[in-house]
Design goal:
Elements lengths: L2 H7 L3 H4 L11 H8 L2 H13 L6 E3 L2 E3 L6 E5 L6 E6 L3 H18 L4 H17 L1 H12 L3 H21 L6 E3 L7 E8 L2 E5 L7 H13 L2 E5 L5 H13 L7 E3 L4 H10 L3 E7 L2 H11 L5 E5 L4 E5 L5 H13 L9 E7 H16 L19 H16 L3 E4 L14 E4 L6 H4 L6 E7 L2 H9 L6 E5 L3 H10 L4 E4 L18 E2 L4 H5 L3 E8 L6
Parallel strand pairs: 7-8, 7-10, 8-9, 10-11, 12-13, 12-17, 13-16, 15-16, 17-18
Antiparallel strand pairs: 1-2, 3-4, 5-6, 6-20, 11-19, 14-15
Bound molecules: NADP nicotinamide-adenine-dinucleotide phosphate.
Pfam families: Aldedh (PF00171)
InterPro entries: Ald_DH/histidinol_DH, Ald_DH_C, Ald_DH_CS_CYS, Ald_DH_CS_GLU, Ald_DH_N, Aldehyde_DH_dom, Aldehyde_DH_Superfamily, Succ_semiAld_DH
Enzyme class: oxidoreductase
Length: about 525
């Protein structure tokens, strides 16, 4: 299948699903030899022999095909190679995954926190011991440069390590009673079975950020990774099994996303939906969760402003803006989507920033020195193209790039566009690609007004050397995360999440644990000592 077909069919699983596997024992290597280039073939063969390249879903500790045998291809976005065919599951398999997760919950939630902690720690150790292989799988199916992919493994694994530690600190409370014969307690208990739906841009970290705290609290999970990047999820699940996380505690299903989503939403056994992805799908899930009044946390899209004031350190600002804009080729929810530059520094910044962008090497993620990989699929490139076209037609000026890369496929030139207005499509929506739009502003008030003029509220960045301004602007920005003189702010120890339409709840840090806990008030009566 060509890359263009891939992109256009991306949201239609039924169109992508193939008929039953020729033989249910068809192994990845058998598929691969016929369909992929030699380099990829060698790498996949190595990964295959490591046991981490799984090509079946995981239900109740068993590697499982779709019940009707249908499959879906996983592609390398840099080459278009079909890496492997994986099951295309739907509602039936999801219901079974929920049932086994519920069974497993009854015992996993009864383990001591110390025991859960030990197994999570073991999972962390295994993720770190296999970080090269996991990084290679991420690069193969997602496209990001290998160094960045290994960085994701470090970042993703850190959520498991943190959760292992935090498992032992899920404290309740004792409240002084207003009545002498009563004792008032607050217990923190796991919410139950969790449905965790995740996107393709961080195929490991978006899973561990949810599953780590869920397991630490005593919950069990049904993970639904993106059909575009299921292999990383399967490799992580294989390591979870090896770490002694019991069968059924971690399940992975994917394929027909709406059908799987509907099964998770309809089930009374699923007590929590945790979702990372687009705002449109997040809203649907939130509405669907109302059927059974589930707990919901949502990590949705952003429209991050990156404000560069006249008094910023130019070098720090260029480095910070570059980091936040071009990580993962611009495909992150916290990527700077609008770079607001004060008029006094605008020209200098535009020149220095464009020079820095020009020096970035584009290419396949396994090539030494490459820092910009391909976009995830053809639909993503078409979206970027349409936003650039709209901006240029309304008076914006391309300072660098502005078109598909000569490498072809889904590579796009790292791009800088000046004279952007906040009304343009590119400033109203996530571009999710390697395009940096520059907007000019005059005053601090104007910058804050433009920055907040959006329904999104995930990340924002400020570059200034003025300490009072750092405080003033950070407080005025309607965002869940603010980076001051820093473009990379994500860490497992700090709360990550958005306000407004960027989501509900927080992931990471001690606050992220609460998303998987219920509070129970217990009143002990007849407690007078006489
Ligand atoms: P998406 O289209 O919303 O997909 C996210 C997940 O939802 C995928 O697993 C997808 O499955 C699944 N899905 C789609 N329709 C569904 C339905 N009706 N029911 C249940 N599940 C459904 O988002 P994406 O394009 O993959 O990811 C990019 C978006 O994620 C961007 O907006 C980005 O900002 C956001 N994001 C947010 C954060 C954050 O922390 N706030 C972090 C990363 C990304 P399939 O892929 O199999 O269709």
């Amino acid at each position: 299948m060509g890359i263009s077909q891939m992109g256009l069919l991306r949201s239609s699983c039924s169109a992508l699903c193939h008929g039953p596997r020729a033989a249910s024992v068809l192994r990845p290597s058998a598929v691969l030899t016929r369909q992929i280039s030699m380099d990829t073939q060698n790498l996949v063969a190595r990964l295959n022999s490591s046991g981490l390249l799984r090509s079946q879903c995981l239900i109740g500790g068993k590697w499982t095909e779709a019940y009707d045998g249908k499959t879906i291809p996983v592609h390398n976005p840099a080459t278009g190679d079909v890496l492997v065919n994986v099951p295309c599951m739907g509602g039936q398999e999801t219901n079974d995954a929920i049932s086994v997760a519920y069974e497993a919950f009854l015992s996993w939630s009864k383990l001591t926190a110390a025991e859960r902690s030990k197994r999570l720690r073991k999972w962390y150790d295994l993720l770190m011991a296999n970080k090269e292989e996991l990084g290679q799988i991420i690069t193969l199916e997602q496209g990001k440069p290998l160094k960045e992919a290994i960085g994701e493994v470090n970042y993703g694994a850190a959520f498991i390590e943190f959760s292992a530690e935090e498992a032992k600190r899920i404290y309740g409370d004792i409240i002084p009673s207003p009545l002498a014969d009563r004792r008032l307690l607050v217990l923190k208990q796991p919410v139950g079975v969790v449905g965790a739906i995740t996107p393709w841009n961080f195929p490991l970290a978006m899973i561990t950020r949810k599953v780590g705290p869920a397991l630490a609290c005593g919950c069990t999970v049904v993970i639904k990774p993106s059909e575009l990047t299921p292999l990383t999820a399967l490799a992580a699940a294989e390591l979870a099994l090896q770490a002694g996380i019991p069968p059924g505690a971690v399940n992975v299903v994917f394929g027909n996303a709406p059908e799987i989503g509907d099964a998770l939403l309809a089930s009374r056994q699923v007590r929590k939906i945790t979702f990372t992805g687009s705002t449109a799908v997040g809203k649907k899930l939130m509405a669907g969760a109302a059927q059974t009044v589930k707990k919901v946390s949502l990590e949705l899209g952003g429209n991050a402003p990156c404000i560069i004031f006249d008094d910023a350190d130019l070098e720090v600002a260029v480095r910070g803006a570059l980091g936040t804009k071009f990580r993962n080729s611009g495909q992150t929810c916290v990527c700077a989507n609008r770079i607001l530059v004060q008029e006094g520094i605008y020209e200098k910044f535009a020149i220095a920033f464009s020079q820095a962008v020009q020096s970035m090497q584009v290419g396949e993620g396994f090539t030494e020195g490459v820092v910009q990989g391909p976009l995830i699929n053809e639909a993503a490139v078409q979206k970027v193209e349409s936003f650039v076209k709209d901006a240029v037609s309304k008076g914006a000026k391309v300072l660098l790039g502005g078109k598909r890369h000569s490498l072809g496929m889904t590579f796009y030139e790292p791009t800088v566009i000046g004279d952007i207005k906040n009304e343009m499509l590119i400033a109203r929506n996530e571009v999710f690609g390697p395009v940096a739009p520059l907007l000019r502003f005059k005053t601090e008030e104007e910058a804050i007004r433009i920055a907040n003029d959006t329904d999104a509220g995930l990340a924002a960045y400020v570059f200034t050397e003025n300490v009072q301004r750092m405080w003033r602007v950070s407080e005025a920005l309607e965002y869940g995360l603010v980076g001051v003189n820093e473009g990379l702010v994500s860490t497992e120890v700090a709360p990550f999440g958005g306000v407004k339409e960027s989501g509900l709840g927080r992931e990471g840090s001690k606050y992220g644990m609460d998303e998987f806990l219920e509070m129970k008030y217990v009143c002990l009566g007849n407690m007078s000592s006489s």
